Amino acid sequence: MENVPFLDLKKQYHSIKNEVDRKLVEVCENTAFSLGPYVEEFEKKFAEYLGTKFFVATSTGTSALHCALLAFGIGKDDEVIVPVNTFTATAEAVVMAGAKPVFVDNDPINYNMDLSKIENLISHKTRAIIPVHLYGQAVNMEKLMEIANKHNLIVIEDCAQSHGATYKNKMTGTFGHASCFSFYPGKNLGSYGEGGGVATNSFEVSEKIEKIRNHGSKIKYVHEFVGYNYHMHGFQGAVLTIKLAYLDKWNGRRLELAKRLNKGLANIDDLHIPHIDEDGRHVFHLYVVRTTKREDLKKHLQENNIGTNIHYPYPLHTQDSYKNLGYKAGDFPIAEEYAPQLLSLPMFPEMTDSQADYVIEKVKAFYNGK
Question: I want to staple 84 with a disulfide (CB 3.0 to 4.6 A). Which of 103, 143, 196, 232 is the partner?
């Protein structure tokens, strides 16, 4: 019996072990533990990779979102439109900034925010939109920027799941006024701890974020305002610089695996496989299927040593943390219908063809009653 974990970070580490080990020792030898040259090198290289003028590293993806919102002066009495089907950090950062998240339902085909519903949510209090490139597939940024420009709104892309994804051959993270990344270990570009950052083409925004992440300071012990301690550690900058060189190769392998899974799992009743938009390059941070038999399928796969996960089991408007917003059951019918049906199957670049084929075999066996 094959064993297919949901994610195998150890396998990836061993593929670059010598490079990583040497570099981590180097960080120690130079005692460059917080910000410093290894973080600066990553900031420079990641900005070059994206094609933006600036990239400011932070401690987490959540702190990156928080910094970006604050840099644009978003706060009390402001509203920010965010998808209801996403990880809580997207909306959480809006609350942290003192503003109000306004949820939008997800598209029934690609699970990203439903752009057709955004304009009805815009009010005189709306300041920004945060599109999330969910599961590694780009939002239609051409359409979204058209809406934002029409209403003079700020766009902050949440690229926590879309490192290297594109829309019409342009990188996610380069369309909006700023974009935020997470480098949590399981991401397509993951650190060995926590990490995040903000990309922008605005010098003013990048400089503001540099101060926000450093206690409101650009010059040591001179504090222009009350900020935060959102430093990236030197170890993470060093690891991310090494891993960045492999990102396109790893993303390519994810797409190969996704296409293999899609082909093998096509035309199964009650199993909806991921849709791949023709206008973008999907980087498959997650490979998410949808079925009304989610719990039974999950149990069957677990019994056959196949790891799974759920992204996400509860739409944000149903969470206690956002109950003060006044939403109720039925407000977001697509998200509510899909939440009990979504199941993430194994997806990582070191996954073998035989492991992918084993997943296909066991999913088919479930639907064939074997």
Answer: 103
Query: Tell me: the pLDDT tens digits for 77-117?
Result: 999 999 999 999 999 999 999 999 999 999 999 999 999 99
208 shares a domain with 157: yes
Model confidence over 202-221: pLDDT tens digits?
Answer: 999 999 999 999 999 999 99
Task: List the CATH number of the domain containing 282.
Answer: 3.90.1150.10
- Number of neighbouring beta carbons within 10 Å of residue 143: 12
* Contact criterion met (CB below 8 Å) for 213 and 228: yes
Measure the CA–CA gap between 312 and 86, rounded to whole angstroms: 7
pTM comes to 0.97
For the question of residue 187 being annotated catalytic, the response is: yes
> What is the total count of domains within the chain?
2
Q: DSSP letter string over 78-146?
A: -EEEEESSS-THHHHHHHHTT-EEEEEPBPTTT-SB-GGGTGGG--TTEEEE--B-GGG----HHHHHH
Question: What does the pLDDT read at residue 369?
Answer: 83
pLDDT recorded at residue 1: 78
Q: Identify whether residues 238 and 253 lie together within a single domain.
A: no
Q: Which two tokens stand for residue 358?
A: 């084993």
pLDDT in tens, 265-291: 999 999 999 999 999 999 999 999 999
Contact 61, 198 (CB under 8 A): no
Residue-range definition of the domain harbouring residue 80: 9-244
**Catalytic residue chosen out of the listed positions 187, 208, 298, 362:** 187
User: Which of 56, 44, 92 minimizes the C-alpha distance to 180?
Assistant: 56
